[in-house]
What does this fold into?
Amino acid sequence: MKIEIISTGDEIITGQIVDTNANWLCQQLFSHGVQPQRLHTVADQLDALVAVFQEAAQRSDVVLVNGGLGPTSDDLSSEAAAKALVVPLELNQDWLEVMTQKFAKQGRTMAPANRKQALLPAGADVIDNPRGTACGFSIVLGRARFYFTPGVPHEFKHMFSELIWPDIAKRFDLVSQLSQHKITTFGLGESGIHQLIKDVPISEGIHLGYRTAAPEIEVKLIGANPQAIADSAEQIEHALADYALFNNHQADCLASHIQQLMLSRGETLALAESCTGGMIASSLVAISGSSGYLDRAMVTYSNQAKQDLVGVSEATLAQFGAVSEATARKMAQGAKQSGHTDYALSVTGIAGPTGGTPDKPVGTVAFALATPSETISQILVLPAKSRTITRKIAATIALDMLRRHLTGLNVIGQYDFARPWLDK
It folds into this structure.
């Protein structure tokens, strides 16, 4: 089965927004064992839309069109579909009544402009949208069945998952699915990962691939035989050792994995962040249920804040500096004491692009983990590619220190992109 995806909208063409809908759709299709042959992005121009619809209709079985179903003049998908079919637009009275009732339930009167969302190509099949006012619709053009969906993500995703994919699967008798095992790693580049797993036997029909999700790298096994995938995945995880953070059957991100580990132990955590500026806390609280273990998070950005909030002494700062293991240790210990928690993490560094010195260049970052029995610290020089990248890597290293401790590994990891800072 040949599938194409067409995303519409000037805001995508001009780079004002990222087309996350197409990305999500590709993932969903892949999970069902199919993948599109082409992805298009088309501006809000009637002739351009008609042309791409007619072209896709000659070579594909299914065409998924996203966007352009709103009430404004630049929403052209219905008009373009009608023009490609050489049929008129017709007012769908049933959907007009549905829209009218939706507005009435909200205590609002539907604006005349919304009637446009009930104008569909003659003969189109309506696809319900319980989460919005723009219905989807389906037509047959050339050899292809087209499915038109609204661009609002939560409306589009529900429509595809609950209505469109079941219809596609039924029409094309799709029953087989691909399985995927994803291992998230941290600390090695793709070449380093390859060196560790190159001797692991991979069964025929299973595809091994990599995906960089900076600063992590995903190793993926994809195929139609779940048991063969599981066997190879087990060997790969063993070969990766402590560089394997988690797999997709355990968690979907490092923060979620940390939460599972902490909640399973019934222990608590405090944070003191300087150069990461709350990035660690933000990643943790993005996961529902984080209040079950995260007690507090302090952004101790200035030297005064380090003194006031986590008790770093003026003498420590004067002798060792804000970016030092001594300061990081005091920050972690002070945060742990402040929150009466079991653990505390601290980060202090020079994220750049300014602030570096010959002795402590941009990318120098100190970390500390205070546990119930000890405080473990390190200071590394990270790649100074950009301020954001340095902060992301630093936040991940801090969480990796905690992960390593909670899983019985050496807290100090070996990262091929970082080097220990040497006091000159």
